[in-house]
Design brief:
The protein has 119 residues and is α+β, with helices and mostly antiparallel strands. Helices cover 48% and strands 15% of the residues. The chain is globular and about 50 Å long.
Length: 119
């Protein structure tokens, strides 16, 4: 069901429409590493190495790409602290934190229903 665009930049938003700008956002948040990164950052800022250890199986390259996409979208901030070695922390923005509720529900659903689904 189409909804009005709050920014006035578009007539409406309809995720089922091929050219709806919401599709890019859905692509980002439907990515497994984005979903997991949001959960990993739920309790506060984290350093890259901590995130990589928590998100078992993600390569440094893919994690870097995911975090950059999230930052560009406004879901997280990246703070660099001048130190040797460089100290970088990632933290969810307010809009990024708002993703916790639906994505936490999705992660829990996956864990609860895995035995019923063939993957």
């Amino acid at each position: 069901m189409p909804t009005a665009c709050e920014t006035g930049q578009h007539d409406h938003h309809d995720v089922y429409a091929q050219l709806c700008p919401c599709r890019g956002l859905l692509d980002l948040i439907a990515n497994k590493w984005t979903t997991l990164a949001v959960g990993a950052l739920e309790d506060g800022p984290q350093r890259f190495g901590v995130l990589q250890r928590q998100l078992e199986g993600v390569s440094p390259k893919v994690l870097t790409q995911t975090l950059r996409r999230m930052e560009e979208a406004g879901l997280l901030t990246r703070t660099v602290y001048p130190a040797v070695p460089l100290h970088v922390e990632y933290e969810l923005t307010e809009v990024g934190r708002s993703l916790n509720v639906p994505l936490r529900a999705l992660r829990q659903w996956a864990e609860n229903h895995l035995h019923e689904i063939r993957v």
